[in-house]
Write a structure and sequence with these properties.
Oligomer: single chain
Distance between the termini: 87 Å
Strand content: under 5%
Largest sheet: none
Helix content: 55-70%
Length: 82
């Protein structure tokens, strides 16, 4: 048997979790965590409806403005309470 005759194994693509010791609940929790961290559901939610490029830019600008305001509020000195 030569190098080229060796069997090839297909690697699973996407998010996969192996169930060990018949513990499906633990595997399901791991799978949900992987999906959440990958941002797949957020991407699907964004792609569900078409958003015009101008609307997307406006939303991004507003989000940046909110982040900036939040940062400024966290750095500001507390109000005088007397």
């Amino acid at each position: 048997m030569s190098y080229y005759d060796k069997p090839t194994y297909k690697k699973a693509t996407g998010n996969t979790v192996i169930v060990q010791n018949d513990n499906v609940d633990k595997a399901l929790r791991k799978f949900k965590k992987k999906v959440l961290e990958s941002g797949l559901l957020n991407e699907l939610r964004d792609r569900e409806f078409y958003t015009k490029p101008t609307t997307a830019r406006k939303q991004a600008r507003n989000a940046a403005r909110r982040r900036w305001q939040k940062k400024l509020e966290s750095q500001a000195l507390p109000k005088k309470m007397y």
